[in-house]
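Handout, section 3.2

Students often ask what a structure token actually looks like in practice. Rather than define it abstractly, here is a full record for DUF1911 domain-containing protein. The first block is the sequence as you would receive it.
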Amino acid sequence: MRDNLCDERELEDELKISINELINENNKDISEIKNDILNGVNRYTISNFEIIDNMYATNTIKFIDKMRSMYSRGDELKDFQEVWNNAVDALGNLRKNTIGYLNLLWLVGMGILLEVPKEDMRKVEKCIKRQSTKDFVLQFLLNSYLDCEDEIELCFEKENPYKKVVEIINLSFEDKKKASDRLTKYMNSEWFKGHYDYEWKNAHKEPGYLGFWSFETAAIVKIFGLDDGKLKENNHYPYEFAHYKNEIKFNITKLNIKQEKEEEEQKQYIESNHELEKIIPNKFREKVNSIIEDYNMLEDKEFWKKYELQDIWFEFSEYEQENADKNLLGFIIVNELINYECILQLDYKEDLEDYIDNLKSFWKEEPVKLIRFDLKNDQNYYMYIPKKVNMNNLYEVKILNI
């Protein structure tokens, strides 16, 4: 076992039942549905093509899960190539579905570690482009492996922790020792923690835990020849995989980042309450303005439906009763801004320190401070506001300084 947090028996069951058997069942169903298409038969409420697409997406993810499981279990690395090929074949059959950013990242990372034929990696690149996935780390890995010098946009599917990878890459061109030190810090204290918002923190305590491995980081080590000796015992760094093959030589001489001119943001206003402009970033003022207008103008039921408040008040009658005094506007604004990563919501049991890197400041260069909204429930709601601002309330919601 490479991951001692995995339960060996549970891992065997996952591989046998949840992965291998499901893949085989899906392949059988795909063949049957393809025959249905030829015969003009549709046995389901959704189209045959959509069902097949769903099954190919599931199979792709399951093949990637299989490789994660195999690595955690301690399988020989020579057995990974066939599974990687199967994952790429399934991915290539997708038309509309996607498999998620991390799965793409792991697939590309493992492909580099396996030193797969470049034409096979180009199949993956084609699928990524078709899905319109734009991400710096993914594109850097692909460009490095496929000898492409195209400019890379400095954008991220998941900023935390992957924006930190830029530091490692930049240092790798300047000072390998400093790059290796930054790599060690990244893997020891930032990579895994950067996925707590994906509920990884206690995932090893749940059934079906497969292990989490930063294959993409090992690929970066391979590309630059960094010293990863201090990560040999790291529970999320695939050290053996990083040193599996060494036939391909990389010749990366510079990082070609696309420089984009920052467009001047048009200033927005909250016409119904200009005071809120002190704490609501410009980017979200139009949204907040609409919420305020709708709250004051729409009938309760129409507002409840438009803002999908059934996630908070399951029945309209519950919302209607609680909103009888029209005193929920601050509560609703806070909950809406969570969806835009402007506010970080945590359960009272969760430590702010574990998640603070996921909270963005939208105030550019302006000094900020952290505040908490008190919604009188068992959740905590955090946001950055300008340091110079002092406000006690967002409508009925109290604002507390941290």
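Discussion prompt for tutorial groups: The mean pLDDT is 95. How would you have guessed this from the sequence alone?
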